[in-house]
Amino acid sequence: MHKLGRGHRDKLQQFMTITGASEKVAHQTLKASDWNLEGAFDVFYSQPQVKNFTDSRHLEELFNRYKDPYSDMILVDGITLLCNDLQVDPQDIVTLVVSWHMKAATMCEFSKQEFLGGLQALGIDSLEKFRERIPFLRSELKDEQKFFEIYNFAFGWAKEKGQKSLALDTAIGMWQLLFAEKQWPLVDHWCQFLQARHNKAISRDTWSQLLEFARTVGPTLSDYDAEGAWPYLIDEFVEYLNENGIIENGQLNDLSHRR
Amino acid sequence: MSSQRKKNFQIEAFKHRVVVDPKYPEKTWKILEHAIHEIYNHNASGLSFEELYRNAYNMVLHKFGEKLYSGLVTTVTSHLSEISKSIEAAQGEVFLEELNRKWADHNKALQMIRDILMYMDRTFIPSTHKTPVHELGLNLWRDVVIHSSKTQTRLRDTLLELVYRERNGEVINRGLMRNVIKMLMDLGCSVYQEDFEQHFLEVSADFYRLESQQFIESCDCGDYLKKAERRLNEEMERVSHYLDTRSLDKITNVVEKEMIESHMHRLVHMENSGLVNMLVNDKYEDSGRMYNLFRRVPAGLSIVRDVMTSYIRDTGKQLVTDPERLRDPVDFVQRLLDLKDKYDQIISLAFGNDKTFQNALNSSFEYFINLNARSPEFISLFVDDKLRKGLRDVSEEDVEVVLDKVMMLFRYLQEKDVFEKYYKQHLAKRLLAGKTVSDDAERSLIVKLKTECGYQFTSKLEGMFTDMKTSQDTMHGFYASHGAELGDNPTLAVQVLTTGSWPTQPSATCNLPAEILGVCEKFRSYYLGTHTGRRLSWQTNMGTADLKATFGKGQKHELNVSTYQMCALMLFNNANRLSYKEIEQATEIPASDLKRCLQSLACVKGKNVLRKEPMSKEIAEDDAFFFNDKFTSKLYKVKIGTVVAQRESEPENQETRQRVEEDRKPQIEAAIVRIMKSRRTLDHNNIVAEVTKQLQARFLPNPVVIKKRIESLIEREFLERDKNDRKMYRYLA
């Protein structure tokens, strides 16, 4: 920024005054439009609301409200408080979406950078704005592409730091949550199967391939291809379904009714 | 008259008038006609060839060739008509003879006539595109004599009748047949075929169809084949004697079709005499005959081969799944070898060493040997038995023969890595117990394995031999330098084993008796003195000991026991009675091994150097043991501890299997990485195929296991799935 020539500096000032954007945003926008002020205005106002001006001071305040007294992180208590303030259940899946926006490394904690960066990207600098955004965040789960990213993000986020695989219980919890949104009819059977037969952690490959499986193979498994290079766990799952009469003659039997 | 008149010389044709006698041609023809008559009447001797020739020549010259030719046709035709009648009139047997004779006459006559009319043959006939004289003669014979309505059928029927009679065993006039047939052939290929051959083939087909039907109802397979072979030879002989050689293939095809092809299946599968019966009873001649006959018909050999193959597979399958057989591994393998020998013999003696049969035999063996998962173990036990005692006093060449046979069975194994595991175990036991019959035989087998499977397969095995040799040298060195001070101590013989080469044994606790410990420690310090940086651990579960024992009445025996047994026995130097618990505490030998060791010391007749109370076969926790003063044996040296290789119990087998499966995982992974490194990206099915191909010399990898290994490699970030096609994998450098 210090290397800007006089002309550029003036434009920067003008831009910031008129649009109210931060210096960084102003600089980016002007640079993108080749330091043409008119062009820069076009770009700025045609962008979605997300890139709106956020007051960094407010964000700091927000962060401090929730942060742990002994470290520069928001930990479990802080998150509970935040959820309360947002009138959202801490178990609500929307917290996952928020974490995704923040690119949080692990569940149940946010670093300062993650918190600030995420909220800024969302254009949130107050609790009110945050509350208003909640429906939008929820709706993102309906978007195919975003769900895909969120789902895959969830693996890294939910697993223990330093572990390669995801503990089975956590995985099952996540799946219940995620597939409640996505409506995959076999999710319960899948979880039962894992508990009965597998009882070990879940690898990343299995995690991501499961989404593929849920997306592409129908619940009657009529288009399941045994040569389809699915992870062996999924092959075993199909066997399990066939053995236990859950899939019979291309029909999905809901065994819960039989009891 | 002027003297300058030009004189032109002209030469003019002879202008004298030739008086052409209008009766000339007629007169000349009459002469020739008369001559033809005479010729046909066997009166040719009175004729002058020169004159006749000149007459014919003049006729042609004076442009009366046409008359000459047509006259020839008429005359010959009329003569032939007479001849034809006389042939038709002939009765019975005479018919053919008459025909033959008249034919011979005709040929002679034709020759003379042709000579006389040679000029016409060479000039008039070519220019007018008429049939030459000789050919004309033949055609006329054919049309007038042979194709006369009565003669045509009669001739055919007579010939076929004669053939029929000959087939039924009568002797016929072959010379006459030959001449008549030759006549038909001379008259033209189509005459032979239409007038004789095609009917001959039809009738023959009917004949053999009928005969084969009769035979098959009344004969067994071997006899039927003999008959068929005889008929075939007969027909071949018939052709050579009096038929056109081109008929050979046609008639043999008829016989083959009617006698062999139509009844192929029935013959092969005939109960109590078909192929299976021949194989079981080593009927080389019969099966050889079947091979030679069936080879002639399409799909004939495949039937023979298929029946043989399925029979071998069934026999083999029974052998390898029969629980009785499986009790004795050495016998089991010997039976396999015997089976192979039997069929090698059959294929060589009866089936002409046919390669396709050899291949069928090999694939059958490969099929059923691998039906039994314990085949690799048993083959190793067989080898163990041979190398331990079976090959004693056997000549070098015979040893090679046996080892080659073993190698042949080895090649059939799909799970060669399982064999390797057992072979190592058994070899270790042989080497350590010093129980091998011939070092050369051992090494010879290693060389064969190396040739078959490569250096890696045998490098560890060779390491074992090296260790034995080195240990010997070490012992020499030990006693050379420490001999004096060790005088009174027990004599030690140590084999130092390199960990990687020998089969892994879990190390167990065992407290050695004090006397032994002392000398062992001396050895340890000696060894570590010369080899720094190494670690030695005593493998107490693999050792042996020779003990001198004195019993109640002063009888002395030398006992050859295992190390565990030695530890237990030495305790009785200081106590007369010991409970199981006490022995366990003192020796710290693991319970199952200790129980087995005490069992062999106390519960086996003839080897009970210990007495147990109670006298039961099983070892219980509160049993008590006594030194058996009353022990007797006829032999001075008593062998109690054996570390002989035996077929594994079920649980041991499971364990070994598991270890083999564990060993396979890194091999599969290495193969996957190798393949992916060179191909960069590859789809799932192709990876499985490539891995299988790479590893099949050692074992057949399970596709599910391959899939799991791929996932493990993805986990460890050696591979990743392609983002667009989930069936493709990509190598991550």
Detailed description of the structure:
The complex is a heterodimer of chains A (259) and B (733). Chain A is mainly alpha-helical. Helix content of chain A is 61%, strand content 3%. Chain A contains 13 helices and four strands. Chain A has helices spanning 6-19, 23-32, 37-46, 56-66, 76-86, 94-102, 112-122, 127-140, 144-158, 168-182, 187-198, 204-216, 232-243, and strands spanning 73-74, 110-111, 247-248, 251-252. In chain A, the strands form two sheets. Chain A has a two-stranded antiparallel sheet. The longest helix of chain A has 15 residues, at 144-158. Chain B is mainly α. In chain B, 65% of the residues lie in helices and 5% in strands. In chain B, the strands form three sheets. In chain B, strands 1-2-6 form a three-stranded mixed beta sheet. The radius of gyration of chain B is 49 Å and the shape is elongated. At the A-B interface, α12 of A face α30 of B.
Keywords:
heterodimer; A: 259 residues; mainly alpha; two-stranded antiparallel ribbon; 13 helices; B: 733 residues; three-stranded antiparallel sheet; elongated
